[in-house]
Structures are given as structure tokens and as C-alpha cells.
Specification:
The protein is 23% helix and 31% strand. By secondary structure, it is an alpha/beta fold. It folds into three domains: 173 residues, FAD/NAD(P)-binding domain (3-Layer(bba) Sandwich), CATH 3.50.50; 120 residues, FAD/NAD(P)-binding domain, CATH 3.50.50.60; 76 residues, FAD/NAD-linked reductase, C-terminal dimerisation domain (Enolase-like, domain 1), CATH 3.30.390.30. The strands form seven sheets. A five-stranded parallel sheet has the order 3-2-1-7-19. β25 and β26 form a beta hairpin. The longest helix is centred in the last third of the chain and has 15 residues.
């Protein structure tokens, strides 16, 4: 290419939108194309399983419409990448090709489909269109079945109950969100959902789904559940087909180094689509909003030649009913888990300690203490299990030097 440099970002979620904005913040004055396959402005996905399903949808655009014109960011909507020539540095967008100096892959993923489970009453949740279609079904007196009690399934169940919908959740594991939270906290959430009126059935395997006049019949290995709508919340499939076919190394995600660089010169990747070589955790696959935002910024700086790395601890949250769960770090890295508060009362913070330092924080109903623990983690400040456990100790003051 000659003349002004052109950076192409394929994927208009928060990772892509953040990368585009960061390029301008860093002074890049070349062309920036931000390509998305939806008709909307780039938007944030976390509200789709919560507030967006309510009667009044919140504002979820990453930036207002004028921002992109003001920053000379060209938005290309309703367009998918269908091919890539890495040698020529040329990407195919729909029916046309375009040259690039640097390419950022931020295509995220697709909601996992289950074989033989389809139809007008079967829903998935990944896009605004998905959420809009599901919202039409969340009417008082209707019955919703949710397949999968991960975070998306549980958040939708909570939102649906708030709208007066009868909800049944079917989960193969022994408790909701058990893979991430463990059995004890999974059991706590099981109690929370059942107390809210959810018919939660764990240890259940779905065998088939069939239409039945006014609804669906969901056959499990122990029973049959009738519903008017079904949400398949079975996880994410990373959108890597085009990139793998072009020779970019992929393994359950586009493989990138700590700085969001692929093994192919000029090609970078960020967000849900990547398998990232994290300096703290090794090769990780993370599907959290905060990670996508931060990786988008790191990728932009790497595209500009910066010696950068994404090394922040994993940070996520989940709102269900009146409960907000917050988590930072990796509990698996801990030698010792210390609980402050009372798990049974859904008011606690669980700290993971290793070598006298906090490596993970997970809390329910105690946001100030979670944030104090997060600061201890980020600073690597020494702390004892006794300090963390003792509720008379103000964790916000632990890092402050004592007065003379």
C-alpha cells in the first residue's frame, strides 16, 4: 500500500470499538475501518441478559453516533469478513476486498447451537436481535425453559422472574455456575433462584425438544417439561473459521501473545475470539466485558508498534435479583481461601492467598470490600489471613503507612 496507512478492525463489539478509539487517542492519523455484521452502532453486551430484557431498554452504545464521524472512524455495518490473504495483506468484506497495513480480529463468538433444537420458540442470546426476540416472550404467565445454568442462563432466569414469567432451568452440573464458582457457591445460588420461584433442576440431561401445538416439550432423562419458549444458554463458539482458513494459528480461539499479536505479521486479535497468552495465567480463553475492553486498547497500541502486554487479572461481575457477584483474579492460583463474612447469608468476600499476597477476590453483596481486595491484588501488597478474615479491619487502610 502507498499513501496513508489503513488499519482495519473486523468486529464492532467493545474490543473493536475500544481499539478504534484508542488508535485516535494515540495519535494515529491514518484510515480506520471498523467493520461489524450487525446494523447497530457498537454496543455493550452485558445488559442483554438483564436490563435490556426489561420493559425499558437502557442506553448500551459504546459511543454515541457522532463520535465515529468526529474521530474519522469509518463504520461498515452488516458486513462479515469472508476471506483473508495474509501475504497480500488483503481482507474480503462481503463481496469486495480491501488492503490493510494492520488488521485487528475482534469477531467474538456465536451462541452455541444444539443439534435438533431449533424453531421459532427456540432462542439464543448473543446479539441485540436475539435479546429483542426473547424479550417478546417474557410476558407474565408465559413459561420459559432455560437450558444451562451458567451466567447467561441464570441472569436471564432472574430477569424473567422479575417480569412475572414462570421459569424452569435445566442444568447438567450439580449446581448453577458450578464450573466457575465451585459447589458451595453454586449451591448458594441454587437457593437464591429457588427462593425467587425458579424451578431449578440440576443433574439433568436434555434428550430432545419437540413442538407441541402451543409450545414445546423438553424431554430430559427424568421428565418432560412443557414451555412456551426455550432459551439455549450453552456457551460460546469463537468466530475463527475465516481466520483459521487463512492460516492464522487457532486453537479454540485465535492464538495471540501477551500483546494481542498473532503469529502472522500485521495481524492482531482481541476480545472473546482470542486464546491469549496471559503473563499471569498462561494461555487463557476469557469471555468478560472488562477483558475485551482492555485487550482492545492493548491491541491498538500493539498495532502502532508499542511494546505492550495485557496482564490485568480477570475481572467480571454478574447481577441476579438484588445480588451482585464480583470476581477478580484466579482462585485456582491460591494456596489458601479466606472468607470474610457469611456465605450462607449471601454477604461475604472470599480471598485467595498465595505467599502472603491476594491472588483472587470474589464477593457477594460487599462491593467496597471487593474493591479494596482488588487493590491489594493489583498492588501485590502483603496481607495476612487474619487481617482479611477480621471484619473490624478496614481493608482500605491496609496499604496505608502507619502514622508516626
Amino acid at each position: 500500500m502507498t499513501g496513508r496507512r489503513r488499519f482495519v478492525i473486523v468486529g464492532a463489539g467493545v474490543a473493536g470499538a475500544t481499539a478504534a478509539a484508542t488508535l485516535r487517542e494515540e495519535g494515529f492519523d491514518g484510515e480506520v475501518l471498523l467493520v461489524g455484521d450487525e446494523p447497530h452502532l457498537p454496543y455493550e453486551r452485558p445488559p442483554l441478559s438483564k436490563a435490556w430484557l426489561g420493559e425499558t431498554a437502557p442506553e448500551i452504545d459504546v459511543h454515541p453516533a457522532p463520535f465515529y464521524a468526529e474521530q474519522s472512524i469509518e463504520l461498515v455495518s452488516e458486513t462479515r469478513a469472508t476471506g483473508l490473504d495474509v501475504a497480500a495483506r488483503r481482507v474480503t468484506l462481503g463481496g469486495s476486498t480491501i488492503d490493510y497495513d494492520a488488521l485487528l480480529i475482534a469477531t467474538g463468538g456465536l451462541a452455541r447451537r444444539l443439534p435438533g433444537v431449533s424453531g421459532d420458540r427456540v432462542h439464543h442470546l448473543r446479539t441485540r436481535a436475539d435479546a429483542d426476540a426473547l424479550r417478546e416472550r417474557l410476558v407474565p404467565g408465559e413459561r420459559l425453559v432455560v437450558l444451562g445454568a451458567g451466567f447467561i442462563g441464570c441472569e436471564v432466569a432472574a430477569t424473567a422472574r422479575g417480569r412475572g414469567v414462570d421459569v424452569t432451568v435445566l442444568e447438567m452440573a450439580g449446581a448453577p455456575m458450578e464450573r466457575v464458582l465451585g459447589a458451595e457457591l453454586g449451591a448458594l445460588y441454587a437457593g437464591i433462584h429457588r427462593a425467587a420461584g425458579v424451578d431449578l433442576r440440576c443433574g439433568v440431561r436434555v434428550e430432545s425438544v419437540q413442538e407441541s401445538g402451543a409450545g414445546l416439550l423438553v424431554h430430559t432423562d427424568g421428565d418432560t417439561v412443557e414451555c412456551s419458549a426455550l432459551l439455549v444458554a450453552a456457551g460460546l463458539v469463537r468466530d475463527t473459521e475465516v481466520w483459521a482458513a487463512a492460516g492464522i494459528p487457532c486453537d479454540q480461539g485465535v492464538l495471540v501473545d501477551a500483546g494481542c499479536r498473532t503469529a502472522v505479521p500485521g495481524v492482531f486479535a482481541a476480545g472473546d475470539v482470542v486464546a491469549h497468552d496471559h503473563p499471569r495465567y498462561g494461555r487463557t480463553r476469557v469471555e468478560h466485558h472488562d477483558t475485551a475492553v482492555r485487550q482492545g486498547a492493548v491491541a491498538a497500541r500493539a498495532m502502532l508498534g508499542g511494546d505492550v502486554a495485557y496482564d490485568m487479572p480477570n475481572w467480571f461481575w454478574s447481577d441476579q435479583y438484588v445480588h451482585t457477584l464480583q470476581s477478580c483474579g484466579a482462585p485456582a492460583d491460591a494456596d489458601e481461601l479466606v472468607v470474610r463474612g457469611n456465605v450462607a447469608e449471601a454477604s461475604f468476600v472470599r480471598f485467595g492467598l498465595r505467599g502472603g499476597q491476594v491472588v483472587s477476590v470474589l464477593g457477594l453483596g460487599r462491593p467496597a470490600e471487593v474493591m479494596a481486595g482488588r487493590k491489594l491484588l493489583l498492588a501485590g501488597h502483603p496481607v495476612t489471613a487474619e487481617q482479611l478474615r477480621d471484619e473490624s479491619v478496614d481493608l482500605r487502610r491496609v496499604m496505608r503507612p502507619a502514622r508516626a
